[in-house]
Amino acid sequence: MKISKEMRIGISFAGAVVLFIWGFNFLKGSDLFSPKREFVAIYPSVGGLVNSSPVAINGVKVGMVSGIAFVPGNSGMVAVRLLITNKIGIPANSVAHLYSADLMGSKAIEIKLG
After folding, report:
1. What is the rounded distance in angstroms from the CA atom of residue 32 to the CA atom of residue 102?
2. Residue 9 above 90 pLDDT?
3. 64 — phi, psi (to 5°)?
4. What does the angle CA 76 – CA 79 – CA 83 come to, to the nearest 5 degrees?
5. What average pLDDT does the chain have?
6. Which of 9, 14, 67, 69 could serve as 81's disulfide partner, Cβ 3.0–4.6 Å?
7. Which residues touch 90 (CB under 8 Å, ≥6 apart)?
8. Cα torsion for 41, 43, 47, 48, to the nearest 10°?
9. What is the three-class DSSP state of 33?
10. H helices then E strands: how many in the chain?
11. pLDDT class for 29, splitting at 50, 70, 90?
12. DSSP secondary-structure letter at 32?
């Protein structure tokens, strides 16, 4: 069975698009094939925290910040979505602390297990 030239070009293009999407997400720090859990932390101020900032437990990176938005209702509080990629158990009474990660002032989140 012979595959036409147009069919080969179409399959190659579709493969290139899939590879581009996977590579782009890989460079952003998120793997498409790893299991993920999402948590939300509420802060009064996040001064310097950005998307893709690290989330750590006992100094080990276990995830990253996936989104930052204001809480609805004009309260001024900020909701931060944490994307955890490790399979570590996080108890319900755990606390997520915002801290300065280095001397340049970049922020990160440390989860203190309950």
Report:
1. 29
2. yes
3. -150, 165
4. 165
5. 86
6. 67
7. 39, 57, 84, 111, 113
8. 0
9. coil
10. 1, 6
11. low
12. T
